[in-house]
Every structure is written in structure tokens, then in C-alpha cells.
Design a protein that fits this description.
The chain is of the alpha/beta class. It has helices at 14-27, 118-125, 132-143, 148-158, 164-178, and strands spanning 2-9, 31-37, 46-54, 69-72, 92-96, 113-116.
Length: 180
Amino acid sequence: MIQIRIHGRGGQGVVTAAELIAIAAFNEGKETQAFPSFGVERTGAPIEAFTRIDNKPIRTREHVYEPDVLIIQDSTLLSTVDVAKGCDDKTIVIINTSKPKNEINLKLPKKNIFALDATKIALEEIGRNIVNTVILGAFAKATNLTSLKSLEKAITEKFKEKGEKIITKNINAIKKAYNL
């Protein structure tokens, strides 16, 4: 079973990112699970969401304590939350930051850290600082757990009520991140 933990702040689409990964993997025939962890948090408060992917039914319902993949949508959390808790030297880390990975203060192997300026891509492609879909392009490239095509289909399914323009902008954003 592959376990994914996503850190971000309320309003950044953390829960949607977890759901999109699950939808994309489900569309590829995998068993999936996605759920958030938050209480009375408000916009800007740190939150987590989790996704699991497996080839067989997933029975566990607990939080992800030892992630295989760690996604950090907001690098300011590095100074306030122990985002790397439970990670080991095999954990793949995907982080939204404008810093090069050798300047990222995580006690994890640099070879497993994938840093991208998802904020810049989101502003360029979507016109808003919502990085959840952008970072999924890097997730697909770094992990090969879902294909870019499956993510595009998941975005189309999830955002169908928001209209074709929003879908196209988000797909363009994930493609740009994937190709970096």
C-alpha cells in the first residue's frame, strides 16, 4: 500500500488534492482512499489530508503516520509544523517552494526531494495562488503512481461544474509542472 500525506493551509485545496490523486488512481483500476484531518480550522490554518493507493481493498482508516509520499503545498509550514514526522530515507517529498532543494531545511535525503515553484505556475496558468492541482503534475512525474492522463481525467470529473475554462487552466498547470 502506498500512503500519501499532504500538508497545507485551509483554503489551498489540500483536501481536493488528496481526492484528485485518489480519483486518478481509481480510474487506473486501483483501490483508493482519501480523507482530511481538520477540526474547526479556518482559512490559513495548517491542515492535512491523506490518500492511500493499493491493488487490494484498503481496510485501515487511520491517519497516515509513515508516508511513502509527502506533499507540502506551503513551505512556510516547515517552520511551524513537523511535516517530516514519520518520514524515512525512502519518503518522496514534493514541496512548493521557490528555493532550490539544497536550501530546504528537512532532515531527509535531498535526492528524494522534488522542489517546484507551484505558486508561480498557479499564478501564471490559473490566475490564482491555489497550488493543489499544479503540485499534482510534479507528483505524477516524481512517483509514477498516476499518469498525467488520469490526473487530467480526474480534474475534468471533479471540476465539471466549474466549467471548461477552469478545467483547461488546471490541466495546463499540471502539464507545466509535470514537464519541469
